[in-house]
């Protein structure tokens, strides 16, 4: 069976060998591996516990907790599929994992971040409705489930270009490379199926939809809630002397 290898060479051609771009000290590698591994394990265990509590307790079955469970699920996904693999690739400067994961891991990372941000936005809107219109009809559990499904669908669509773009290619080990050093190539995960201009537009679109738009919505609704609560007085007659005795 013939194997086709894509080699991307953006280096200086020279007959001399060279070291890699940078070498990570073993101690730093071990320390960061422990830290990232701990973060990943805690993220999975902690958020799994949150989901388990919400699922097993009927009184926890409400719209807000559904959103919280969805937020926890997104954190579990990023803890399982993004943190460990993206970390090792960044440190080792090569892709030692199965090639399909080159597209899968960045896709999952963007997917999880999108779900988290959109869910936080949904929670903010739900709290805004509860505080500013407390007597209005509360969204049903079915509505919350539909919103959550929509969040995952939109997040998946926005993450798809990254899966399309990323592929494993062979690149030189060092900055200086000679055509005779064919054995000194390494696998590297890189965006090759989409042009640099397309990736720039995609990054700008993500920044707008993933950061600026949710931030604006959350800022506006929480500002309105703060103003509403700040101007409200507690029920009952205020008595300064009585209230001072409770302080």
Task: Walk me through the structure.
Helices cover 65% and strands 7% of the residues. The chain is mainly alpha-helical and 247 residues long. It is elongated, with a radius of gyration of 25 Å.
Provide a short characterization of the protein structure.
GO terms for molecular function: neuropeptide Y receptor activity. With 247 residues, this protein is mainly alpha-helical.
Shape: elongated
The number of E-state strands comes to 4
Mean pLDDT: 81
Q: Helical percent range?
A: 55-70%
* Biggest sheet, spatial arrangement of strands: 1-3
Structural class: mainly alpha
| Poorly predicted ranges | 1-5, 9-21
Q: Give the biggest beta sheet.
A: 2 strands, parallel
Provide the succession of SSEs: EHHHHHEEEHH
Total count of helical runs of at least 4 residues: 7
Q: Between the first and last Cα atoms, what is the distance in angstroms?
A: 82 Å
Strand content: 5-15%
Radius of gyration: 25 Å
GO molecular function: neuropeptide Y receptor activity
InterPro entries: GPCR_Rhodpsn, GPCR_Rhodpsn_7TM, NPY_rcpt
Family: Belongs to the G-protein coupled receptor 1 family.
Transmembrane segments: 27-55, 67-87, 107-125, 146-165, 200-223
Key words describing this protein structure:
single chain, 247 residues, mainly alpha, two-stranded parallel sheet, two-stranded antiparallel ribbon, 4 strands, 65% helix, elongated, disordered N terminus
What is the element layout, followed by pairings?
Layout: E1 12-13, H1 26-56, H2 63-81, H3 83-92, H4 100-132, H5 141-165, E2 166-172, E3 176-177, E4 185-191, H6 196-231, H7 240-245
Parallel strand pairs: 1-3
Antiparallel strand pairs: 2-4
Protein name: Neuropeptide Y receptor type 2-like
Membrane topology: Multi-pass membrane protein
Subcellular location: Membrane
């Amino acid at each position: 069976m013939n194997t086709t290898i894509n080699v991307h060479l953006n280096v200086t051609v020279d007959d001399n060998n060279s070291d890699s771009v940078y070498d990570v000290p073993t101690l730093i590698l071990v320390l960061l591996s422990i830290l990232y591994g701990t973060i990943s394990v805690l993220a999975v265990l902690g958020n799994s516990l949150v989901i388990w509590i919400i699922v097993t307790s009927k009184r926890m079955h409400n719209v807000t907790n559904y959103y919280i469970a969805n937020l926890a699920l997104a954190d579990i996904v990023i803890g399982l599929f993004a943190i460990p693999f993206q970390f090792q690739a960044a440190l080792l400067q090569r892709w030692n994992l199965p090639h399909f994961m080159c597209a899968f891991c960045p896709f999952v990372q963007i997917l999880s971040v999108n779900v988290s941000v959109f869910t936080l936005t949904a929670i903010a809107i739900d709290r805004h409705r509860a505080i500013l219109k407390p007597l209005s009809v509360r969204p049903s559990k079915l509505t919350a489930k539909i919103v959550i499904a929509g969040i995952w669908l939109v997040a998946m669509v926005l993450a798809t270009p990254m899966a399309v773009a990323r592929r494993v290619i062979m690149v030189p080990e060092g900055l200086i490379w000679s055509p005779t050093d064919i054995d000194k190539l390494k696998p590297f995960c890189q965006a090759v199926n989409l042009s640099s201009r397309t990736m720039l537009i995609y990054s700008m679109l993500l920044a707008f939809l993933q950061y600026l738009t949710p931030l604006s919505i959350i800022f506006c609704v929480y500002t309105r809630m703060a103003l509403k609560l700040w101007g409200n007085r507690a029920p009952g007659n205020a008595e300064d002397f009585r209230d001072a005795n409770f302080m």
